[in-house]
Amino acid sequence: MTPQELEKAFMPFFTTKAPGKGTGLGLSVSCTIIQNLGGRCLAESTPGKGSTLTVELPYRTE
Hints:
By secondary structure, the chain is α+β, with helices and mostly antiparallel strands.
């Protein structure tokens, strides 16, 4: 992803796919759930090389 795409990666309805090939909700919904659990979503990307998405969740002993 380009730096501009990376900034928008977790926004609802953002997609780089062609029209009709995706809704752009997957990362947005996933990240909202993760944040509601007290975690966070991180993304790194190098255009042409690949992307790394990291999920951090708090440790709970309940």
